[in-house]
Amino acid sequence: MLRLLTNRRVWLSAAVVAVLLAVALWPTTMTVEVATVSSGPLVVTVDEEGQTRVRHRYVVSAPVSGRVLRIELEPGDAVKEGDVVARVRAEAPPLLDARTRAEVQAAVEAAKATLGRAQAEEQRARAALTQAERELKRTQDLVRGGVVPPGDADLRQDDARAATETVSAAAYAVKAAQADLVRAEARLRPSAPDVSGRVVAVAAPISGVVLRRLRESESMVPAGDPLVELGDPQQLEIVSDLLSTDAVRVKPGARAMIEQWGGTTTLEARVRRIEPSGFTKISALGVEEQRVNAILDFVDPAEAWAALGDGYRVEVRIVIWEAPTVLKVPTGALFRQGEQWAVYAIEDGRAALTIVELGQQTGQEAEVRAGLSEGARVILHPADTLTDGTHVEALGQ
User: Is 27's pLDDT higher than 60?
Assistant: First the structure.
């Protein structure tokens, strides 16, 4: 009888151990968040803040030394070319000594050279505009004949528009150079006996609006002292300072999207120029960064961005690569496996470690070149405890 009880205790202990081992070794199921590998468009952009600015700014200066009378114009007031924007009661300047006269003569020669260069640039810009209009007409004829796709005509239209703006900028540059030459020559002219006390009217060199009033109250000013700043708000551009490592990936002509500007729509823009010289900027974290200015032009008509003015903040997204259809996976599913990228795919209810080959990437998605197929389910944000072969259950199922 004692032996029978002992055997029962041994068998009972063995059964308990077996149950405990089964429970310990029984595969556990981990609940995970999943996403599906899909095909679709992928756009890789460089995102940065930008600022609008009037493309051509003109600082109107005092032509003679004297007392500037109170300037009544307010910022935002419209002026036409030739309108009086300020008045200066002149005072007879002292006679020029030999050194000052030599400096003024050098300034006159420099102003003449600048004017000549500006006139040459205007001629070159007008020739380029003529060529662009000729290419546009030829392409439109080819489109009507079905020889080339309609998109070629759009590109030629953009070229013609850019050439027109270049001619306008060159014409403004000629006017500014002419004004500089007149101002430089005025300093060489001998003062008339009655010059003192004479009120000199200062005219606007362009039609536009007053951007800034640099002098308001009556005060003494030397010749060349800035009085008001003028510009045309209908000729806005965008400047965005990019990290130099991003700027090398951006090409002139690249498409850009303007967001967070205050309107309800996304504006279209195009990169006109990447400036050749960078500068150092201290970030919000106190880190020195090398920055490069990218200059963009609006593609949308002026009515779409009429609410913007000079110095307004915008968000700029410059497209550096895009494709209409690629196989893509959320970047939240990716992790490093040695020197390669990997994901955990779900196969028969288990996590399967899968090595993938990636192409272009954004902050949310990445192009899959090999390793996954469309429709495959992958685990998002895999935990450190997740291993190959682990039983998984999709969240919500």
Answer: no
Confidence category of residue 42, pLDDT binned at 50, 70, 90: very high
CATH label, 60-231, candidates 3.40.50.11270, 3.40.640.10, 2.30.30.60, 2.40.50.100 = 2.40.50.100
Question: In 10 A of CB 101, how many CB atoms?
Answer: 13
Residue 272 in this model has a pLDDT that exceeds 60: yes
The closest of 370, 368, 375 to 328, measured between CA atoms, is 368
Task: Tell me if the domain spanning 45-53+234-322 has CATH number 2.40.30.170.
Answer: yes
């059964």: which residue's tokens? 15
pTM attached to this predicted model: 0.64
**In percent, how much of the chain has pLDDT > 70?**
88
Alpha-helix runs per DSSP H in 145-235: 150-186
Long-range pairs for 332-340: beta carbons < 8 A, 24 or more residues apart? 332/35, 332/380, 332/381, 333/35, 333/378, 333/379, 333/380, 333/381, 333/382, 334/358, 334/366, 335/382
CA-angle at 168, arms to 167 and 171, nearest 5°: 85
Q: What percent of the chain has pLDDT over 90?
A: 45
- Cα(110)–Cα(83) distance, rounded to whole angstroms? 28
CA–CA gap between residue 93 and residue 339 (Å, rounded): 76
Q: Strand 391-394 to strand 29-36: parallel, antiparallel, or no bridges (unpaired)?
A: parallel
Instruction: Considering only CA atoms, give the Rg of the chain.
Output: 35
Tokens of 68: 């500037």
Q: By C-alpha distance, which of 183, 211, 160, 163 is closest to 53?
A: 211
